Queue: 4 jobs
Job 1
Amino acid sequence: MKLTTYEQNMLDGLEGEDKQFAMKLIVQVAEAMDASRLQEISQAHVVDTLTTGTGETGPEYAYKLRDMQAKVAVPTTINVGNIDLKNPENNVPAEYAFEVSREVMNIYKDMGCEPTYTCSPFQEPANQLSLGQHVAWGESSAVPFANSVFGARTSRYGQFIASCAAICGRVPYAGLHVTENRRAEIVISIENLPDHFKDMGLFYHILGYRVGQIVSEKIPVIIGIDPDISRDHLKAFGAAAATSGGIGMFHMVGITPESPTLEDALQHQAAEDYHEITLVELDTVLQELTENEVGQALEAVAFGAPHLSYDEVIEIFHLFEDVDWDIQLPVYIAMSRRTQDEIEANGMIKKFDEADITIVADRCVYYAGILWDDGLKVMTDSAKWAHYAPKCIDAEVTIGSFKDCVDSAVAGKVVLQGFSEEE
């Protein structure tokens, strides 16, 4: 593998212990991927702040970076951790992870990372990537957004790799950094589904989850999507597909920058397979993610996985206004600290507080430390939440639309419209 003079200097330790440590890992990964060279990156999103739960790294790695006084070489944002630093009243101090998680999250901030602590880095103003921009993003729901919506280039980087890439500014020139590896392999059609479903946020959670099941780690191209689809719907689709499958990229014709046509998405080659999504399939997925029947008493409602956008929070706010904030259950709404700052600035958070609705930042609610762990019955808007919560906090989960979740909070039990044939 060919290295530039500067890359060799980093590997030899001439640019500091931290860069040598990072380069050793990146070079080993590059060799395992048969990369002929490294690729310089301009930005990173690190994911090593989770010390417990699915995707955990453990604190020892962060302590090692701290001991060598590591610093990032490119602008870098930080993923969620296991505690809410912005709203400490949300945390359970008795949890083992509390002090450790706070320490680890602060270590990455001290390395020069921007303390965004969000799983939706693509919603941050500084993370609006450009076509062809090479970055090193971790977080399963963020990677497909970077590749598929921005047209940037990142492989699906997990623990250790994204942070080492941030320190040395390099990744292997392999995977989704290489044009030919970004070719769509499987065509997924939703052209014959009723158009009114395509305005529903729930539709994209369920569709994404089904697509992930179909394609696993292969790259799909979706036809039949409205080119005016919102970024929130794209976020939901990518997060769900990366949860049930292992995708790092999807194409949507007329939406993904590299895919103005189906032929472009396929790089003018034949597709390996074709699959037409049916309503029966979507209903089946809905049932797979539904453990509580309609009318079942609930104990909580949780919004936001990935973190909600400002527009989504406004939508939920108005839905609660429509029912006069008459809720019977604890409600949790997860968002980035920047989004929380925005709703504090416009006064919305006061109404949430008055209704005893808990705003959560810096973390996900399906990790232990906020909700109790004893078979809790929860309603959520998110396929990702519904997938992980049973594993992480032993919750019994039902997924529904924003309106389903609000109506369930009012009724104190599952209210679920699902996918009706009627508009």
Job 2
Amino acid sequence: MLLSSFVNRKENRQLIYAKMLDGSFPVFSQFGNNIYASDIVQNCIDCIATEISKLQPRHIRTDSNGIQTTPKSSLNRLFRFSPNPIMTTKDFLEKVIWQLYFNYNAFIYPMYDTVTDQRGTTRDYTAFYPLNPTRVEFLQDESNALFIKMYFSGGNDFTLPYDSVIHLRKKYSVNDIMGGGANGQPDNGPLLKVLQINDTITDGLGKAIKSSLSIRGVLKIATMMDDEKQKAERTRFEAAINSSESGILPMDLKGEYVPLNIDPKVVDKDTMEFVQNKILNWYGVSLKIISGTFNDEEYQAFYEKVLEPIIVSLGQAFSKTMFSKRELEVGNEIVFYQRDMMYLSTPNKLKLLEVAGAQGLLTDDQKLAILGYSPLADGTGSRRTISLNYISVDIADVYQLKKAGSKDNTQGGGNTGA
């Protein structure tokens, strides 16, 4: 939508289709079978996208001594609140994950200005835009440099260097470039079969309930009647039903009521759970994760199986595209940090504080954040303490040396006296 102003650059360059190892043409449509009409599928993807949207992306730099710093860069400015003018960081991450699960491929375009100063030429990043092309083609020029041509639903198409686009892939397997199946689309065949069974079960359950509430019996009228007399007789019969308080229906010799014993069959609970669990297992999301009734261990399993691979992929894909080889070599990278462990139960939060706090790994403000409190108002929350009488980390070594020296002097004096 906003790309036409900055990416549609025409160059006098001869491009041909990139050569695929299997001999196929690298042209991929982004539309697969619509599995997303299922409420279970939508709930699963929504859980994953919502959790990923809580991440805090950061540009960090690690020096040769392993010390990490957070530079005051344009990247951190964008990552903090708003990667582009129409999205917050949460919106941005959530949209990227939805597109990744819709298409098994997600494309992000980083917009930047080139700045030249005494340090050389650098990039000043101004926005990140998640893209939603309907079709992509991979091309190459005379030097075998790879390009991506994207077609959009509005009729526009843009050709960009592939290394200037952040490309996330899911189930990257048989295709050389795209995630998903051999055609670069989601390979949802096995899931579609299960969804069809689930839809049949759900539809049958609705029909069974409806049938049980509809016709309950047949009124046989012993005489020949025209339509008007039949209607009048039915009205009289219904009035008799409505006026009966004892459950006994009075009738004359002209009519006979024959009850219909309707016994609708529905699928048993175990079968329904089996079908639904197959859908949930496809996405690695349990019912407790969807309902929010999980415990710490269940969330940790969900994190390690589903969220962690996405987090690793995000960090590597962003770092690979955002930085040159030289910048990567000197320790620049993008890391997607989790928020404080707010999902932990109160006993496990206290256990975390006891272990991590005793080692001097957390500041006072970080400890307060884990418990849900605001930072210290006097600004002293950056202090770290350890379990050595909870003194400042800065003087712990001096304290230990003094204590060791005092002990040696005591032992020496005892030996002299002996």
Job 3
Amino acid sequence: MTETAHAVSYVRSSEVYSADGSKIVGLETSGGRTSKGAEANPGFFSGFLTDPRIAASGLLAVADVAATRYYQPTLRSSLDPVVTGNGDRLRFESFSGCCGVYARLDILTDGLDGGEVGQGTTNVDVNTPLRIALSRIHANDPLYLRVGPDELAVTTLDGPLVEKKVPLPQRWLRGFAETQVIASGFDLRAEVPAADAARFLRSLPTRGRVPDLWVLPVGRTLRTTGGPAPGAVCLPGPSRLATLDRVLRHARTLRLYGPAVTAGSPPVASAWEVTLPGMRLTLMLSPQVSRGFSGEGAVLEALAADDVQADTDLISALLAWEPRIDVADLAAQAGLTTHRVRSALTRLGTAGRVGYDAAEAAYFHRELPYRVGQVELHNPRLRDARALVRAGAVTVDGETASVRSGDKVYLVDHRSAVMGCTCPWWAGHRGGRGPCKHALAVRMTTRGDN
């Protein structure tokens, strides 16, 4: 998967200057999108954080994930966290090198001390010098942070550091698209006090071949079990939670989110959220260590519908950098059903323009430099399904449809919510990674899509 380079230009170089007897880091920014439209040199935030040490630990946790491959580990990566200003908060997001772990640090209003939060999105390079500076932050150190669309600077008592923006991997775009759909199906499954959470997390096996675990709430604590059960949360690859150690000493509670499961359910994704003073750190784990979010297929149903494009254009025009997108309000404004609004938000998510916050059970607005629908170019199942429809390969007869693909014919049960198919993809995944190309082609045909 190739990366997309973003051109950056500045009116002048960033510099350190004095004002009113203080040293200030002045960062020059390149063009970006804000609530006022495109601006040549916008800014997001300039001010202090209420708890520098916790904020620094949270930023390092997000950077840890961006620099790690949990599946088939290799040398450390140099992937770059994304930062979004939502008017009342800052969100720092990243994916692991294998795209199987998503991390987000939300610095909320209570975590910001002075300075208005702007509205916009960019990615930032958190490299070794910046990581060293963050690791040296103490509780009483003033941490002055200024974030622009193309640069991040942290000023401590030791002096300024400025980090430049670099390309954002295409695989992250697909990860952003998938995680917002998957997380929207989560509910809060457990909440335990920090001390009990710390004991539980530190008791987890992290070395050798560890089988996939399931976690159940028991009173004020958690216990592991070997299989799924109602109320359980999936924990594939416990070592993927290790980065939470950076913030556990500051934690208030640990919250677990996941979809509803029953006995016999396959592995599913889950989210682990540490609540902190004025902040939240969330790790979202893919259903298996070997599976990256970029290939989960959760967006395919929404992308396959022809009429979603017009809805997407309308909803896009109504978004206003909301930290919490009210689906019912958008539906009323647009004159659409909530189902159609959610499908449009899913499509916007394929361009990284929508995320989902399980803690608030709400979507949020961000902007990444990708076109809506670009992810379709990188999704072979969707491309192949459209080709099958154009070739007239689908025949619908009662509850079963047949799809000719090459020299074979596959049968699809199109009346069920999860359409089964006789193809090898369905046999291998049983719907766990989205519909196969044959089921998508049948869905398009029965809806009359072109």
Job 4
Amino acid sequence: MDLKVGIVGFGLRSSLWRHAHKPGHGSEVTAVCDLGERGRADAAEKIPTAVVTDDLDVLLDSGLDAVLVLTPDNQHAAVAVRTLKAGIPTFCEKPLDVTLEAADLILQTAFDTGTRLYVGHNMRHMPVVVQMRDIIQAGTIGDVKAVWCRHFVGNGGDYYFKDWHAQRANTTGLLLQKGAHDIDVIHWLAGGYSAKVQAIGELAVYGDVGSRRDNTARRMGDWFSVDNWPPTEQTDLAETIDVEDISMMNMVLDNGVLASYQQCHFTPDYWRNYTVIGTKGRIENFGDGAGDQIYVWTTRTTSGFAEPDQKVEIRDGEGGHGGADPLLIAEFLRFARDGGTTATSPIAAREAVAAGVLATESLRGDACAKLVPALPEELVEYFNAGQPARVRER
């Protein structure tokens, strides 16, 4: 029998509905809740068999087996806490929320209710990340000692500075909102979580662009174009912009690994570059899509740039983000139905939020290091054990 799946928030990540709505093949989207008229209209057009509403109670009472929380980031906890309390296995889009308190509340609620929680860190299914981790796990470069990530966000002006992303109230900052993916990947490749973080950053370009407007009723498809270049000539930016467009973050992980993350939203190119250095060599990706390559160096040289000892081609995949999106939803639906281990981790998702939030506090303060507070041990044990069945409190 198909799982009955609900969706809360039919906006930027609503494309995930395609992977959840497969009537007769395991799952069907039967209810959608969105506060916006346009979101409801889009849902009704794409999934005409679903109940479409602006009332979350209607969705919660519709007999769901699973739910995707795809609202703007600062509403994740407000919705996920209610879906978890209703006993509905919950997919929460990354980041868990925009504050550490809200992220911890989601985890605590999942623990207290025993309701399954899954977080949408789809990059744990992206071929480039999976293949780099496989090389590390095989011991090819020895013990990891450093991870560097440079993120060239070439579409930053169109993606993040024309809508709700541009305001701290909605995101805390892009070092968290956009960086949560990469912080999680850094943690995953390094095998540890940030214990101490420090950062610097600025609103260096988009704050000086004078063309502004209210884009509330518009969507990215209404304004996106590669012709919006150079960044200083962008038009129709959000009326309020108070997040950084360039940031640089340093991390000391709890296993001694040192890491750094750099994010820039006004580059001409759009890709991520990871470098992982171990005791026996290093790896680095050149491009992050299908057909690009991961270079592996394991032989010492005495001159400048040397050809790598091995070149690994990055695999292809069907669906968004190199095939990661369909794999992500398939894993969540399997987890909602049967439980078990998953590639994603609520603990890891919380640690990415914690690192991003505290790094943002650092860059907006005096750039001093911030210590990451630990979760209660009972929560760590519960989620690391795969969220075993619990007797729900009455």
